[in-house]
Amino acid sequence: MLDCKEAATPMATNYYLDLDEAGKCVDQKMYRGMIGSFLYFTSSRLGIMHNVCLYARFQSSPKESHLTTVKRILKYLEGTKDLGLWYPSGTNIFLDGYSDSDFGGCKLDRNSTSGTCHLLGSSLISWHSKKQACVALSTVEAEYIAAGSCCA
């Protein structure tokens, strides 16, 4: 992976992960180790958090298709190694919170995913991405659940 081709995004835009029951199994320990390393990276690289959490759902039985998508994160990190968080001094202090959700984004169980972020001034101080515990029946309901998780 040292001389890999860089990727502009951590995941292909129109690719959906599934259980891939017919796919070839890969080493579970290696897959879990990669996910754990990426979870460490999420403390400073917000752009991979959603993808890492999505790929972590397949740790019990990872397939080659899952490993290929995980390797794409490595390609993305290689292409964006100059990016990071920046906290400038002398800015106004105000707290803003934002939330969003994808209605029925998980094709396996139709659960939505909530995402939130909080800014102190113009600096990002926290973020969160989590699969919702219940199945939302509408886009509005999914957004309300996401807004509630932003304030909690």
TrEMBL record:
Domain of life: Eukaryota
PANTHER family: GAG-POL-RELATED RETROTRANSPOSON, PEPTIDE SYNTHASE GLIP-LIKE, PUTATIVE (AFU_ORTHOLOGUE AFUA_3G12920)-RELATED
Protein name: Uncharacterized protein LOC106760285
Native organism: Vigna radiata var. radiata (Mung bean)
Gene designation: LOC106760285
